Amino acid sequence: MVDELQRAITVASGLASLCIGLFAFLKSRRQLHGAIFLFISVTMALWAIGEAMTVASQTLQDKIFWTKFQGIGELLLVPSYLLLALCFPTVKKFMRERRKAAAVLAALYLPWIFSLVALYTTNLVYTSYYLTEYGQGINVTRTPYFWFLTALGFSEIIASTVIFLRERGRSVSVRGRKGLLILALAPIPMLIANAIQNLELNRVISTPQSSIFFVSLLAYGILRYGLFVDIHTVAKHTLINAAVIACDICLFMLLCLFYVYPLGLGLHPTTYVLMALSAVPFLVAYHRQQSWATRFAERWLYGRDLAEGELLLELGRSIRTVGRLEELAMGVAERARSSLGLRLCAVLIKDDGVYRVVGFSGDPFHAVASFKRGMLEGSMVIPGEHGYCIESEDGSLSAYWRKREKLYRKGFYMDRVDTGIVRTLRHSKVEEYLWREEEEGEFISVPLEVGGEDTGLLWMGGKAGAASFRLEEFDLIATLSTQLAVSLLNSRLLQQLVDKSARLQRLVHTTSVAQEEERIRIARELHDGMAPFFLDALFRLEEMESLAKDSPQLASQIRELKKMARDGLSDLRRLVSDLRPSSLEVLGLERTLRTYLERFAAENGLELELEMRGDIGGLGPLVEVTLFRVAQEALSNVSRHARAERLSFLLDGRDGGIVMCIEDDGVGFVEREVRERMAMGDCLGIKGMEERAELMQGSVTVESRPGAGTRVFFRIPAHSAVDGELRVNG
Question: Residue 454: enclosing H or E segment and its boundaries?
Fold first, then answer.
């Protein structure tokens, strides 16, 4: 009786393993780990069948045959389990390269395949076989190679356990961590049984019999934690198909009974044919019925799950496309309240030690809807040891919410609030509202934290019918709060970046205005101070020249001085013009640049190729001055260093942005050498152009080679070209 029970357990474990493997493979057949797990299940089944047949056999030869048959499953199971550890839940990086994967597979399987061949053809593993005392089992004489294989097998199984435990530590999912823990612990009973069997500590226990624990743990992991398959989807489809089949069978049975009794056809061959024909519509319409049942289940049975999933999906999308803080918070509060069927939901952000309500949603048919204005318009929430105090700046709302206890869920604590007193002032009338848990339902305050930093609170309460939150809803709220905390932090950081950018823009504008005012002041002083001096000198030299008619040598020197004075006056006027481009305000950028370029080309003997296209009008004053100054600096470099004969200038205002290109055919330079000089503080002209480009959120590119001339590209994006303001797109 005991032997029969042992054989039954062994066979049952093998068949159960095979069924579980087929189930996991069919539900995840596109995944590598599904195929590996099926192979493991087949080896388990072969091992178990071999063990059962060994016990059931009567002759020594039969027992030897089935003992060797066990080796097929036993020897291939060990490397396959280690291979599963390398491929689940994700394929390890080194296994994704074909050559490395082939080397790993060879290292895993070749020793065991060699041992399997040796088991059948030599005495390398076992030297002899003999019956046990009562003739039911078989004993073997183990060789040193057998103990080597045993040690290798234990090492590989322990390595698999370690890999699964390491993956468990990296998993962010609770279900995933528990599933990996089951995979790590599942082979332990078999290792213990194998050690007992090989050391002959007990002649009843065998490794295949203990595999029932291995199979049971894997079955539990699949059904409870969705190992290898999405068990919720499988269960949903199974229930839907079962419901459709049950309904069809009931309808078919009623139809058959209708043929037999009300119609009086009886149980005759004609009736059987009619019944068979009646089954055809059920078979034809099965897929349509399945589709209807799926839509019905998703709407009425799984509607809440879908709504919760959409809520998390929408929040995740908001994290990636974060915008204004208030818009984000209001959207989350409204969606969370409607998804969970609550009376109110509020999102609070921490600011200077107190909390500020940035998102609020209340049931429009409940008194909480009247809280919205007071909560959002400058209200402050001050946390205390026993509750929360709320005061609005205009005095339109004051409230106190009392904490009752702390709830622990998913790694952090939530405060449960049982009583709240709210006073509102509207139209010189004070209204008071009392919130009681037994009347309105549970109210919880969930902390929003990111990396230990307190970013805010999430308030949720007032389920329909004064109901309590379910455990699944607590899990959803915990997940929601984690994502919301990240989203609020991102939004707040973005707002800070926008504020800093605005301050930087004001500073840039102030600095640029100050620079231009200083240039104008210097130009005015030069014009009012130095220009009259040169004119007076020229006037006096004219008088001296008329008095020096009798001295040709003195007259010649006076004429040289007059030429020098005229050149100095001309340079002074050019400098004043460069410092104060007043023509920008009168003529605009296009005509000012055209005049300046034509004069520059004439003075330096250059052939000018000038092109301006697109819409250049309507640029901000700061942008026009920036473009003019960059052009001045680039042309100054051409005049001093290029030794060019031809100059090309392009100003393109198409596509909203501005592109300015200045190119010459001069001697050029080595870009690397210029960059090194810039790092040492030289080449201030190019560095100045880069600084101006950076302040306008633009870019400057200088391309040059010795003997091939130089090309300067200056680009300003569209949003900066309109008014010169720095902006952050978010």
Answer: strand 453-461
In this structure, the chain runs to a length of 730
Architecture per CATH, 583-723: 2-Layer Sandwich (3.30)
519 confidence band (pLDDT: 50, 70, 90): low
Rounded Cα distance, 616 and 590, in Å = 7
Please give the residue that has the higher pLDDT: either 667 or 697: 667
Question: How far apart are alpha carbons 659 and 652 in whole angstroms?
Answer: 5
Structure tokens at 615: 């819409």
Instruction: Give φ, ψ of 372 to 5 degrees.
Output: -60, -50
591-605 residue pLDDT tens = 888 888 888 888 888
Location of structure tokens 């952090």:
412
Sign of the four-CA dihedral 363, 364, 366, 372: positive
* CA dihedral of residues 15, 18, 23, 26 (deg, nearest 10): -140
Contact between residue 199 and residue 180 where contact means Cβ atoms under 8 Å apart: no
Which CATH superfamily groups domain 319-497? Answer: GAF domain (3.30.450.40)
Q: How many whole angstroms separate alpha carbon 298 and alpha carbon 661?
A: 61
Q: What are phi and psi of 713, to 5 degrees?
A: -105, 130
Which of 584, 671, 678, 679 is closest to 632 using CA atoms?
Answer: 584
**Helix, strand, coil share (%) of the chain residues, nearest 5:** 65, 20, 20
- pLDDT value of residue 232: 62
Q: Phi/psi of residue 657, each to 5°?
A: -85, 180
Token pair 């001045």 is found at 632
> What are phi and psi for residue 90, nearest 5 degrees?
-130, 155
Q: What is the mean pLDDT of residues 206-229?
A: 79
CA distance 548 to 546: 6
DSSP 8-state secondary structure symbol assigned to residue 670: -
The domains of the chain are located at: 2-229, 234-301, 319-497, 583-723
What residues does 407 pair with on adjacent strands? 414
Contacts of 407 by beta carbon, 8 Å cutoff, 6+ apart: 413, 414, 415, 416, 444, 474
Distance from C-alpha of 555 to C-alpha of 541, rounded to nearest angstrom: 10
- Residues pairing with 415 in the sheet: 406, 445
**Residue that has been written with the tokens 């069924």 in this structure:** 19
Domain spanning 2-229: which CATH class is it, in words? Answer: mainly alpha
Tokens of 590: 């296009």
From the list 52, 25, 30, the residue with the least C-alpha distance to 41 is: 25
Contact 487, 378 (CB under 8 A): no
Contact 715, 656 (CB under 8 A): no
Other C-beta atoms lying within 10 Å of the C-beta of residue 109: 17
What does the alpha-carbon distance between residue 228 and residue 41 come to, in Å, rounded to a whole number?
13
Torsional sign, CA 93, 99, 105, 111 = negative
Mean pLDDT taken over the chain: 80
The first and second tokens of residue 74, run together, are 């036993």
pLDDT band at residue 728, thresholds of 50, 70 and 90?
A: very low
Confidence (pLDDT) at 470: 75
730 pLDDT above the threshold of 60: no
Could you give the angle at which helices 471-525 and 325-340 cross, rounded to 10 degrees? Answer: 170
Q: Rounded to whole angstroms, how far apart are CA atoms 275 and 253? A: 9
